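Write out structure tokens for FAD-linked sulfhydryl oxidase ERV1.
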Amino acid sequence: MPPPAWGWGSNPLEPVVHTVAAFSRRLLIAPDAAPDEARLRPLLSLSLSPPPTPPSPPPPPPEVLKKDSKAAPLTKEEVGRATWMLLHTIAAQFPDEPTRQQRRDARELMAIISRLYPCKECAEHFKEVLKANPVQAGSQAEFSQWLCYVHNVVNRSLGKPIFPCQRVNARWGKLDCPERSCDLEGSNDIIPNR
């Protein structure tokens, strides 16, 4: 293919691109078809221009951008409140007649938290609390009451108010799930069958 009348540009690959483009036109036209450009459907498109820049991601929805929100890690207190909320919710959902595995899981969960909790000082204190107050998970009521007691042990050490454990189910009762879909099912499977 001869160079175009206007000459080759500054791109050293320009002659190659033009040759490949001309060759691909010949390949894409059926032998019995007229070589009209409208019928060409290239499998590969080559261009000398730089690729277009991808569009920027859309801004987050307004509810995500709160005026008072801070872009900082959680405080020790925020992590503590969230952890207790999770633990009390788990205890509230704990079965009335747990399997041996569920009782073991409850003990193991507390042990794992005492090892992996993001506040080292808090984790060490929780280990001491667990040593003095081993996990009691024979039923939902027992586990919830034990957790409330342990939470109060921690609260006392921090000079915080004590929660009345007789109200634990009123505060962190069973989740409102249709057809008891929140109930724990005894299973040794890591990923339950669906």
